[in-house]
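Section 5.1 Outputs to date
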Amino acid sequence: MGAALVALHLVAVYLLALRPMSGTWVPAGSVVPLHTIRQYLELGPAAAVHHLATGLSLLAPLGVLLPLAGGRVTTSAPGSFARTAFGGLMLAFGAEVVRTGMAGSVFDVDVVLLNTLGVVLAHLAVVPAARAALRRRGYGQAAEAWTTDAAVGTAGAGAAGSGPVGAMRSGPVGATGPGPVAGAGAGSGAAMPSVRLVP
């Protein structure tokens, strides 16, 4: 479900934000970090908030959807954060590269930074608390218990298989029947002497 939601969100981003733009004025691109953000701040509070909020919110849902796609409740928090931040950065960079090929768009490194920051903030705001709540309700403990039981069972089976198997089967087979019967310890490597029962 998480992977499907990630794909659906990326399709929505493509349809809404990466469509070709038409206009008489196109903002200049920049490969200098924070250059465009400083320009946004010079436009005034309202315009700055609008542009910054747009950049932060574009890919922000991925901060929750990417861990959801992983489906792990008891994972390491730093590892989950690092994977989500890296995945958000790669997706933001890829989206900006695709957008650059559209009419009326140019590459801007600050857009990548804002998109990635939105992913990181959404992850920090939702995922740690959500995982803690799920662990308190017992989610993930069943999988851990199953893994532990499987490991103990495997170790026990190995220990049982290493002992003398023939010790359980070393008795003379058919001792109550007439005629010569040979009893053998299965797995012991040595045959038992034959025994003739006298009526």
